[in-house]
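Dear support,

Our group has been running a series of protein-ligand predictions, and this particular one with fe (ii) ion is the one our PI (initials K.S.) wants archived with full inputs and outputs. We had some confusion internally about which version of the output was final, so please treat the block below as the authoritative record. The input we submitted was:
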Amino acid sequence: MEHGSITAEDYLKIIDELTNYRGYATLNDISKFFSVTRQSVYDEMNILIDRGMVERTSKGEYVLSEKGKHEANIFLRKHRIAEILLSRALKMRWDLLDSEAMGIEHGITETIASLVCENYGCEKCPHGNPVPDISGNVTEPNDLSFQEIGKYSHVRVSRVIFESDDVLRYLQSNSITPGADLVVGDDGGVYFGHEGGRSMIPEDIAAAMKFFPQ
Ligand code: FE2
Ligand code: FE2
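Confirmed final output from the archive:
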């Protein structure tokens, strides 16, 4: 990542995403996401634990406290509105939105946010995630995880819950974005159709999405 200073809010956001993705965040995941050392992530986690935002489990995994989740939601409003602005006003490529939003999200005031909502609508970010309201309240969609779709044969992509560069690049290059229709195979894999036939989406990428049964 090219952005010099990673803020406490950026850490809260990635812990929230990783928790949605696989139930918790680890030092490894976080340091890989930001391309920083495990030690600097560890130091930041201790600060966030002292502030009552983050909890460390007995296995050394990290999750957000109630307070941390609320703070994350306040920040995710700015982040997701920044993504909408870059996408709709600047027509920025879908797979660049998450990382480029990091450059402007801290400057999204509520005046800017309400104008973005007025001009473009701000129900969901371009990856399908709901935009929290000004108080940090958010209504999560009633969608299903990769582990839950086994009994359906057709699903539609609801959203991308882990917006990493690798995940977004793969999905963009295969035209898989919210609203895309996919097939669940007998083997439990998720397949997309293209000119050459059908391909299975790698499991770690399928697990980074949520779906609606069709
Ligand atoms: Fe994002
Ligand atoms: Fe997004």
